[in-house]
Amino acid sequence: MDFFDEILTYTYLKSSSLSLLLDSMQQQTPAITQKSGKQMMAEALTGRIRSDSSMLRQGAKNATEASNIAGIVANSSSAILTNLNQMLALAQEVKADSTKAAADAPKFTALAQGITSTIANSKYNNISLLDKSGWTGDSRLTINGGGNSASLKIQVGYDNSTFTLNDMSYLNSLSSVDLSSPTLDLNALISNLSTNITTATIIYNGNSALSTAYASESAFLVKQADILTKAAEDAMPSEEDPLLRDLGSIISTTS
Question: What is the value of pTM for the model shown?
Answer without folding.
Answer: 0.73
